Amino acid sequence: MKLLLSEIAKATGGKLAGEDKVINSISRDSRQIGENCLYVPLKGEKFDGHDFIDKACEGGAAAVLSERENEEYSVPFVRVKDTRLALGDIARFYRQKLGGLKIIAVTGSVGKTTTKDMTASVISQKYNTVKTQGNYNNDIGVPLTVFSFDEDTEAAVVEMGMNHFKEIEYLSSIALPDIAIITNVGVSHIENLGSREGILQAKCEIFSHMKEDSLKILNGDDDMLITVADKYKNICYAHIDGKGELYADNVEPKGLKGTDCVLHIGGVTIPVGIPVAGRHMVLNALLAARAGIDLGLTSDEIKRGIEGFKPTAMRMDVFDTDAYTVINDAYNANPQSVKASLDVLASCEGKKCAVLGDMFELGKNSPQYHAEVGEYAASKSIDLVVCIGELSENMHRACLKKGGKSLYFGTMEEFINNIFSVLPKDSTVLVKASRGMHFEKIIEKLRSEKI
DSSP 3-state assignment of 235? Predict the structure, then answer.
């Protein structure tokens, strides 16, 4: 990147003190200062980045932002009202400066990261493509993603998350998407947004800073997304359970090896082998393929991108140990994603075990949602359902009531202490819970496999 401090001052409405310099990188971490770097101190619940400005300067920062009124620094600085908002202002200015770069924005209650990764895999077959890394999908992560663009970047796939109204609208104002993808509308964050109607409204904020006729690719099998058909221009709906402009058929699950299917995009037909298990992956492939068509990719390029796709860590990551086949889907969870993962587990041969934990931010109906997952697990003939956490006791009881076999542990530590006596050898084990449950520790224990 290349920005002048005077441009940054103008973009943020701040005041430059000191020499105008060229900025080639931006960091919020005083320990990670790159060449010609602007240090942006952010405030957290337990820290204030302003306290580390001197350390950043000692580490080679070329300039800094600051909210503090009466402080002076050893390097040029831009004084702003709010450094967090200033970070977004700079990213918005930089994105506009890049001009012709094509940006695909992705959101949804379930599957947005996998769809982002698959879309990037497709688009990268033709264009030099950047994508959101890790969980950089909020008001800090999206600006940092934008700063990773350079003069050679031709396309970017940007993930957008939220748990309150107006968050995605803000992110859209920074990224200015050319194409938008919405995977679905579930119940994640319903405690903050009130209802699925509220979640739909928040997800559709992704359109707020797009050109009116820009392409919007939506899941046509989602009961909420289908209701906005007449509210926005140039919507393309994707279907697994129906036909239209964008649909899939001849869907053939191959267990943990993935799924074969045929994608239909207008008059284009593309047979593909999706290398990750789950029927829901077919939808992700459709969404990615349609974005590829809009950006001029050939059928062969789209097929190569889908078949070469590799998911982000802890998302349907399958590995084998001497005793188990493990499905590591521990990054996050909500009722819809857990049921999809249980479908994958149910398709496996041999003994099947699900290790499930609490799902957070589900509001007042959280006990009911956990119970529904327990009932669903019982219906899929899973050999053993291990439920961990306070909320998951509802899951455990519901599973037992419906005739399933379930064990309950109040804490993850209690389960880990008994893990190898609980899980039968030679079984396929699904591990899934909300991120706050830290189920990666269970994955680490299974990998160690000291039985």
Answer: strand
| Assigned token pair, 124 | 């990268």
Strands (E), 90-195: 102-107, 129-131, 155-159, 179-182
**Residue that has been written with the tokens 């697990």 in this structure:** 377
The 10s digit of each residue's pLDDT in 181-231 is 999 998 877 888 889 999 999 999 999 999 999 999 999 999 999 999 999
Question: At 195, phi and psi to the nearest 5?
Answer: -165, 170
Alpha carbon distance 92, 283 (integer Å): 31
What are the b/e assignments for 89-123, b being 16+ CB within 10 Å?
bbbbbbbeebeebbbbbbbbbbbbbbbbbbbbbbb
Of the candidates 230, 432, 212, 228, the residue with the CA atom closest to the CA atom of residue 328: 432
Beta bridge partners of residue 27, listed in sequence order? 39
Q: Tokens 């109040």 label which residue?
A: 410
Domains of the chain: 3-81 (3.40.1390.10), 99-307 (3.40.1190.10), 317-448 (3.90.190.20)
Contact partners, residue 388, CB within 8 Å, separation at least 6: 355, 356, 357, 358, 408, 409, 410, 411, 412, 415, 433, 437
Q: State pLDDT tens for residues 121-180.
A: 999 999 999 999 988 999 999 999 999 999 999 999 999 999 899 999 999 999 999 999
* Cα distance between residue 252 and residue 165, in whole Å: 39
Give the whole-angstrom CA distance, residue 404 versus residue 384.
8
Strand 215-219 relative to strand 179-182, pairing: parallel
Q: Is 160 exposed, middle or buried (0-12, 13-18, 19+ CB in 10 A)?
A: buried
Q: How many CB atoms lie within 10 A of CB 58?
A: 12
Instruction: With H, G, I as helix, E, B as strand and everything else as coil, classify residue 104.
Output: strand
How many other CB atoms sit within 10 Å of the CB of residue 125?
Answer: 18
Nearest to 112 by CA among 287, 370, 361, 369: 287
Cα distances (angstroms) measured from residue 194 to each of 64, 111, 189, 337: 40, 21, 8, 20
Reported as a pLDDT band with limits 50, 70 and 90, residue 450 is low
